[in-house]
């Protein structure tokens, strides 16, 4: 065994999650440190699932439950405001182009106060984006997020999206 490496457990379903979490987006694969305190792990998982459900539904209730009041986007795109308002406005704007956006959590890795998520977002371009009107074109792209959770809420987020694929699908960037 490698020194300073703890065993990792793999779970497809987190049985000890609160009952209310059943309506939240669940990760297809959940990987966590088996030595981590259950209460801390569950708090990180719950915050991440609430935030994924926000992106899946567009319902701001989930974002408000997931994000700390002092939430910091560590990798904001130009012009995005800080705090919970930033993601709320981003989702609202994105849903104008892709109203049926869904978000699946392909993988979630939890260690300490962090969660890393591999997300797959899908929908149809039926709205408008930068003066272009969608005609129902399918949209599918991936994102990776890293959350730092404090007191059960996401205090910071680092994220990267496959924006080139997205912009090509929205017709904003020509395909090669």
TrEMBL record:
Domain of life, per lineage: Bacteria
Species lineage: Bacteria, Pseudomonadati, Pseudomonadota, Alphaproteobacteria, Hyphomicrobiales
Signal peptide location: 1-21
Stored InterPro entries: Cyclase_SnoaL-like (IPR009959), NTF2-like_dom_sf (IPR032710)
UniProt-recorded name of the protein: Ester cyclase
Residue stretches in coiled coil: none
Keywords: Signal
Pfam families found in the cross-reference section: SnoaL
């Amino acid at each position: 065994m490698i020194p300073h490496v703890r065993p990792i457990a793999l779970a497809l379903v987190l049985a000890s999650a609160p009952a209310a979490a059943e309506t939240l987006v669940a990760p297809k694969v959940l990987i966590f440190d088996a030595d981590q305190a259950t209460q801390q792990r569950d708090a990180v998982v719950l915050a991440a699932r609430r935030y994924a459900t926000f992106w899946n539904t567009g319902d701001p209730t989930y974002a408000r439950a997931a994000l700390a009041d002092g939430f910091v986007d560590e990798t904001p795109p130009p012009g995005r405001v800080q705090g919970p308002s930033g993601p709320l406005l981003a989702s609202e704007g994105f849903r104008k182009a892709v109203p049926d956006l869904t978000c699946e959590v392909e993988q979630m890795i939890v260690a300490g106060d962090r969660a890393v998520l591999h997300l797959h977002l899908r929908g149809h371009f039926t709205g408008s984006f930068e003066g272009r009107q969608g005609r129902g074109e399918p949209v599918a792209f991936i994102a990776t997020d890293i959350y730092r959770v404090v007191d059960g809420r996401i205090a910071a987020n680092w994220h990267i999206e496959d924006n080139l694929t997205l912009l090509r699908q929205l017709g904003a960037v020509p395909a090669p």
